[in-house]
Design brief:
Blueprint (H helix, E strand, L loop, with lengths): L3 E4 L6 H12 L2 E4 H10 L3 H12 L5 H14 L6 E4 L5 H13 L6 E6 L2 H15 L6 H15 L1 H8 L3 E5 L4 H15 L1
Parallel strand pairs: 1-3, 1-4, 2-3, 4-5
Helix pairs in contact: 1-9, 2-3, 4-5, 6-7
The structure holds BIS(adenosine)-5'-tetraphosphate.
Length: 190
């Protein structure tokens, strides 16, 4: 299997690039952000709790997120692999992902890490907030999300670095240019 962790700060283009990677490599897409927004839309108890946390720009608890991932892994074991979009976001989530994949004799192949300067992230997310009305794309929440990323999520990059799986990619440029950079790495590792 080809199992990709797609990593980067909020607004770095993870969701955007995930769509293109899936099209080319036919992988199962697991976006914890999308799964949580679906819970919010379905008005579940989990969704109600998650919305409050997401609107503040904080991270939903590891326990909830890991439970959602385990369900998805169990349902899709016959495919060519997974793309984890926005997960893991803490070192604990990374450890749990490793455990869960090991149960299926699988492992993470590579972590693609999109790097984008803070000013560009804020610009992209403010624009998306105006266009879509997404409730966590407000200037105050965006800044908190980037701070949370720097404090709680960035250590995940070092976790994969130690395993020689971390591949940083310049996330500034056109969507197609960035996709070409990612494809080059994926052709090397697949
Ligand atoms: P996510 O849904 O993962 O949201 P995100 O980090 O903002 O990334 P997204 O994929 O949406 O944006 P993208 O960069 O593609 O998380 C939302 C919240 O859910 C989190 O804050 C947290 O509360 C919770 N959550 C999710 N996963 C969790 C976990 N594992 N643990 C705990 N909590 C979790 O794109 C952004 C914008 O940039 C788009 O408008 C796009 O059109 C634009 N764009 C993309 N590429 C571009 C380019 N090359 N040039 C210009 N613009 C570009």
């Amino acid at each position: 299997m080809l199992n990709i962790v797609l990593f980067g700060p909020p607004g770095s283009g993870k969701g955007t690039q995930a769509c293109k990677i899936i099209e080319k490599y036919n992988l199962v897409h697991i976006s914890t952000g999308d799964l949580l927004r679906q819970e919010v839309q379905d008005l579940t108890e989990l969704g109600r709790r998650a919305k409050e946390i997401m609107d503040r720009g904080e991270l939903v608890s590891d326990e909830i997120v890991i439970g959602m991932i385990r369900n998805k892994l169990g349902e899709n074991q016959d495919g060519p692999g997974f793309i984890f979009d926005g997960f893991p976001r803490t070192v604990e989530q990374a450890r749990e992902l490793r455990k869960a994949l090991t149960e299926y004799d699988e492992r993470v192949t590579v972590m693609i890490s999109l790097t984008v300067p803070r000013e560009e992230l804020v610009k992209r997310l403010v624009k998306r907030g105006k266009e879509t009305g997404r409730s966590d794309d407000t200037p105050e929440t965006i800044n908190n999300r980037i701070d949370v990323y720097n404090h709680q999520t960035l250590p995940v990059a070092y976790y994969y670095e130690k395993m020689h799986k971390h591949r940083p990619i310049d996330g500034v440029g056109s969507v197609d240019e960035i996709f070409k950079r990612i494809s080059k790495v994926l052709e090397e590792v697949k």
